[in-house]
Amino acid sequence: MATMGEKITVGVVGAGGYTGLELIKMLMRHPNFKLSYLATTEGGVGVEQLHPSLLNLLDIPVEKADAKEISKRCELVFLALPHKASMGLAKKLLDENVKVVDLSADYRLERETYEATYCPHEDPEHLEEAVYGLVEYYREEFRNARIVACPGCYPTATLLGILPFIPYIDSSVPLIVDAKSGVSGAGKKLSEKTHFVTIDENIFAYNPLKHRHSPEIAEKIEKIHSIEIAVNFVPHLIPATRGELVSVYAQLKEKIEPMEILKEAYGDERFIRLRESPVDVKSVAGTHFCDIFSACNGTTLFVSSAIDNLLRGAASQAVAAANLMCGLQEDLCVPDIPYMP
Ligand SMILES: NC(=O)c1ccc[n+]([C@@H]2O[C@H](COP(=O)([O-])OP(=O)(O)OC[C@H]3O[C@@H](n4cnc5c(N)ncnc54)[C@H](OP(=O)(O)O)[C@@H]3O)[C@@H](O)[C@H]2O)c1
Q1: Considering the entire predicted model, what is its pTM?
Q2: Same domain, yes or no: 90 and 203
Q3: Mean pLDDT by 10 residues, the chain (341 residues)
Q4: 317 in ligand 1 pocket by Cβ < 6 Å?
Q5: Which of 118, 211, 252, 329 is 20 to 30 Å from the Cα of 104, by its Cα?
Q6: Does 19 lie in the same domain as 80?
Q7: Domain tally for the chain?
Q8: Mutate to test the pocket of ligand 1, among 18, 49, 86 (most ligand atoms within 8 A of CB)
C-alpha cells in the first residue's frame, strides 16, 4: 500500500458499463485513490469516447484489459464485469498481489451454491478467502481482505431489510420477496426485455421464483443467523433508469415492534435510514443510502427497502469496501445527496 502522502493506485476494468461509469465518477474525486487504469475488452479509446458525459472532466486512456499491466500500475482494482469474465482476471490479479473488489457474482457464494446457480468455478482457491461485501455486516473483515465480493443489488436491499428480523421469524414459512428494479439493473447490453418499446409504460415479472439472487439471499441469511429459510423471490422490471424497491413478507413467531428492532440494528449506521412511512426509490437515487420501513399486521411482517441499484447495489458499496480494505474512512467519496426531484 502507499506510504504517507502517496495516493493508492486503483483501476477499473469494465469501465464502459453502467457500474463502471459510477465507479469512475467516485474515484476521479477520491482524495486517497489515484485512478490509474481504465480498461474495456478492446481498449484503444479515450474516456470521453466511452462516456461522453465525462468530456473535459477526466483525461485518461482506456486500454485493453491486461493482468500484467494492471499489476504494474494498480494496487487495487475494481472488476465491473459479467460473471465468469471476472474470475478469469481476478485469479491472475490476486496472484500478482493486486487487491480486488469484484462486482460480479463470481466470489459471492459458496462453491456448491455458485456452481448450482452459475457455472463451474475457475478459481476455488481465492473463492475461499473472499469476503462478502455487505458493509454493515462484514466491515471488520474488509480490513484484512485481498478480495471483496460485492453483493447482488437485490440481495443488498433484501438482506439489509430482513436480516434484523430473522430471529423473530417463523422459519417454517418461506419468505416472500417481491422486488422491482429500474432497467439499469440489467446492465448496458440491450435485450428484448430492456428495449424502450418493451419497458416504456410497462411493468412485468422476470425469472419468477428462479432468479439467481434467491440462493444468494438464502445462503447469507443462513450464514449470518444460522437459520435456514426458504426464499420465494420475484423480481419485476419497471420503467425507471435506476432504483430498486424490495417488499418482503414474513410470518413472525410472535408480535413485535418492527421499527424498534430496526433502530436497535441500525441506530448507528449512517447509510441506513429508517423511515416512518413507506420508502421510495427517488429518495435514494444517486446515493449509498438504503432506506427501510417496516410494519406488522398481527404476526404478518412487511419490510420495505429502497436502494440505488448502481450505487448501494454495486459501485458505492464497492468503493466503501475498497476504502476499508485500504485502511481509509469508509465513507470517502461515497455519495449521500439524492438526485431528488
Ligand atoms: N447494473 C447493476 O445495477 C448491478 C448491480 C449489482 C451488480 N452488478 C454486477 O456488476 C457487473 C457489471 O454490471 P454492469 O451493469 O455495469 O454491466 P454492463 O453495463 O453490461 O457492463 C459490463 C461491461 O463489461 C464489459 N465486458 C468485459 N468482458 C465481457 C464479457 N466477457 N462479456 C460481456 N461484457 C464484458 C462490457 O464492455 P466491453 O466488452 O466493451 O469491455 C461491459 O461494458 C455485473 O457482473 C453485474 O451483474 C450490476
Answers
A1: 0.97
A2: no
A3: 77 98 97 98 94 96 96 98 97 97 98 98 97 97 96 98 98 98 96 96 97 97 98 98 98 98 97 98 98 98 98 98 98 97 92
A4: no
A5: 329
A6: yes
A7: 2
A8: 18
